[in-house]
Fold this protein.
Amino acid sequence: MRLSREIREEYNKADAVAQQADLSVRTVYSFVGEEKTVKDYSNALEGIVKLGLKQGLAKGLAIGSNDVTFVVWAFVSWYGSRLVMYHGARGRTMCTTFYQTIVYVLRAGSRKGKVGDPQGPLSRAFGSGMTNVKYFYDAMVASKRIREVIKRVPAIDSNNMEGEILQQVYGGVKFKNVMFAYLSRPVSLIFKDINLLVPVGKTVALVGGSGSGKSTVIALLQRFYDPQGGEICIDGVRIDKLQLKWLRSQLGLVSQEPALFSTTIKENILFGKEDASMEEVIEAAKTSNAHNFTECHRPGVTER
């Protein structure tokens, strides 16, 4: 069981290398890092090989030890025959000893210690069955992360329909003394007492180096995270008091690296508003400068 847990941990390291290379495959190719990535992945698998050899040896010893009883049986047969042939022992005595060995060794675990007792081979069957416990433990270790996700109660529940809904949204945004750090790096503060005011009807650009917190501002405004201190307001109302699904439906985001689902342009636009009309879809395409190279607005033409 210990080896199964360690093997799973080693597999996680190898998986991390593969996932990172897959997600950043363009970067890997641009810097000609294929060989280095393959080498890192191979090095991550070396620990699995060593642990697998240990596990195979442990399992082999466990399965092989079940046959020790036959070794005892063979030894009693050989030694008993020599006693009869060369030391004048009686065959009857040897047969009695032989069957007593079966009772106490091969039939250990029976209720009455009698040969032929249907409950006799319990200990041997138990010993053989224990070698398969590994597979149950492998399944438990593999499902650990899944079980953690299932049992986790999110602090921000996107399905929670409680909260306020504003009748009119003007778009004033205010960050007041906001403090924030990611859960993976609680010591590294991204924001410390940050104050930001976006007046109604104004366009504001956040400029800064990589990692300065520009994307974090948007993530906080969409409530993908909650700040550790301070408050974020829209039109004077704290966003944690608003209904989360409604709040996100009022925001539009175009990332610098947009991702499209494997469906039509129309259906991709509808992810933002499922009940939108065709006119609204076309207007959204025009607003995002995607109207000229798509054909979803032309009647009789397959949507692309």
